[in-house]
Design a protein that fits this description.
heterodimer, A: 168 residues, mainly alpha, 2 domains, B: mainly alpha, 4 helices, 80% helix, 0% strand, elongated
Chain lengths: 168, 115
């Protein structure tokens, strides 16, 4: 994991926590904002070391563009996977051919790996069982191949490309 | 604001349908992992769309419901991963007819280290 300065990580944590506070209160009264700023400062000072490894870099405009693109692709995949489940569940013959495949990821950032694992779980027909170092173990409801390369392109390619752009 | 209310009602209805499909999936699938597959996807989108629908019906809550949706999007797949992993570690063997099980070797090597 790449290291950035502690101050950078601290400010990132503070900003994120303050945005969260604002989203929950949704009020612009000075008292609320000052309390929120103070509370998020205290919480950030305890948690910034475990909260983030990559810091403020993610707020750069072209990265935010990739984040938006990622969210769009992700929501499409989520909707598609629900129709996939519906199709399998409602057809009388229950068309499943399950198996567990493995593949290696190019991602190095822990947070990026978590995002990829969660996205894989929510895309059609796949469920992340475990991550060991760089290897993902995926339960695939309709196995097309046990070759790691093919599994990688079939399952993770779109997401991984964008995550590499966002986190590197 | 009428139109927002109707969008909200539509989203709640859609969410309920997906949740129902998830329940049917849990009933019909043969083993833990396939049940998790159906359960996770359906409950994630179902709950998201239901909560967002409530947000559209009461626009003051919209931001809060958006935060809830994001938290569900993070927590739901994570918990399903933990369930699947612990099921495998506790010898709930998946029903696999084609013999493709890459996770078995990891599990076996961990067991032999323990013994």
């Amino acid at each position: 994991m790449q290291t950035v300065s502690l101050l950078n990580r601290f400010i990132y944590t503070w900003v994120i926590l303050f945005i969260l506070w604002y989203a929950f209160t949704t009020s612009l009264e000075p008292a609320e904002l000052i309390t929120g700023g103070f509370v998020s400062l205290v919480v950030a000072s305890f948690s910034y070391k475990v909260f983030t490894g990559s810091g403020l870099k993610i707020f750069m405009p072209h990265k935010l563009f990739f984040v938006a693109q990622y969210i769009f692709i992700f929501i499409l995949a989520l909707i598609k996977s629900n129709f996939d489940v519906a199709r399998r569940v409602l057809s009388p013959s229950l068309p499943i051919n399950p198996g567990i495949v493995e593949f290696n990821t190019k991602l190095t950032n822990d947070f990026a790996k978590m995002v990829l694992a969660n996205s894989i779980t929510l895309t059609p027909g796949t469920l992340t069982i475990d991550i060991v170092e760089n290897t993902f173990y995926i339960h695939w409801i309709d196995v097309k191949s046990d070759n790691p390369e093919i599994a990688h392109t079939e399952i993770a390619n779109n997401f991984e490309k964008l995550l590499l752009k966002i986190f590197n | 604001m009428e139109i927002l209310k109707y969008i909200g009602i539509g989203l709640v209805l859609l969410g309920s349908i997906f949740l129902l499909l998830g329940a049917v999936g849990i009933y019909r699938m043969p083993d833990v992992y396939n049940r998790l597959q159906a359960g996770t996807k359906a409950t994630t989108l179902g709950a998201m769309s239901l909560i967002l629908g409530v947000g559209f019906m009461e626009p003051e809550w919209l931001v809060k419901t958006l935060i809830l949706v994001i938290f569900i999007g993070i927590a739901n797949p994570l918990s399903s991963h933990v369930l699947a992993r612990s099921a495998y570690k506790n010898n709930q063997m998946p029903i696999i007819k084609n013999g493709i099980d890459a996770y078995k070797k990891i599990n076996d090597s961990e067991k032999s280290e323990e013994n």
